[in-house]
């Protein structure tokens, strides 16, 4: 379909066509995404670093969920780091025409895109592994077939094996990014975009064209590949990566697992040990809230991304510029929710569990302030008290040792010296 008449009839400006077909930099949804990503990303980078240190230093390593939390902090950190780099690069390109991600080499470009998509997939599937671990531990759905299944799966060694398997699987799935993508440059503007077909070339006097002359370089599928290879890569990216591995399969597992966990948590049960049951239940509720928050904030972006990859080509064929812009707005806003999901895990499983919250306060040195003392657990209060007592005794011992080495001058009244006092030798304090 030739869109020239449609564009002329609706009198689209060059800016609107750029937003739809090339780059939406400068739009209000673009600014919202950039500022929100840098804010949530900065908070998330600091929070995930604190999470990793707290979980490594103060958690009991024999529990399986500790391994998932460590891995999740690492994958979330690198996912946020990639997102912050991309947002900062977009901001610098828009304001100062400075491209900090101008790789100039296809090898570096391949490695960057490959690592980025591996971290994105691992951040998603680590949450799935953590939720499945809680499902087996609490619900034990296959207890009749495998009576000791929870002991075999919910342990340290099995958690490590599952994490390494997920890493291996993510590396294999994302190989097309490493094989087919290259560093490709083209002129900026909608007239040079892949969405704008050459047969739709407009009379530039009828449209206020605001395209720039600088090149737009990205890591994308190279036009040098054959039509079959390009089609194969596009189909893999849409249906294998986004639809199946990134959206449908993890969403089904998370929804089913969380539904079963919530049913067990709210079902009446016989309490064997009240204190242990309380701690276990609170920890499980916190980890379940992490999974549910991830499900609510993370998957809208996955769904919008998948739908945009499927529907936008048909919108381009039907010249539906408004529909394309609507999807771009939804994509930017849902991407911000995605960044928020990666950035607020810190507040859920560090601030939500008393032990980890107290450990974070102690590690950051906030226990010196009275306002944070009430959030410390008895264990950490005793630990801080014993450290303070040891320091006090050590200082007192050093002070006593220093005092014992002080020489005292003893005055002796010697009658043979006309009643005038004479001086004896120096003696220590404890030699008298």
From TrEMBL:
Could you tell me the keywords of this UniProt record?
A: Membrane, Transmembrane, Transmembrane helix
Pfam families named in the record:
7tm_1 (PF00001)
Q: Which GO terms describe its cellular component?
A: membrane
List the subcellular locations. Answer: Membrane
Domain (G-protein coupled receptors family 1 profile): residue spans on this chain: 47-349
Regions crossing the membrane? 28-60, 72-94, 114-137, 158-180, 238-265, 286-304, 337-356
Keyword hit for Nuclease: no
Please classify the protein's predominant subcellular localization into one broad category. membrane
Name the domain of life this protein comes from: Eukaryota
- Read off the PROSITE patterns from this record: G_PROTEIN_RECEP_F1_2
Entries under InterPro entries matching the protein: GPCR-Ligand_Int, GPCR_Rhodpsn, GPCR_Rhodpsn_7TM
GO MF, one annotated term = G protein-coupled receptor activity
What name does UniProt use for this protein?
G-protein coupled receptors family 1 profile domain-containing protein
Provide the species name. Answer: Adineta steineri
Q: What is the lineage of its organism?
A: Eukaryota, Metazoa, Spiralia, Gnathifera, Rotifera
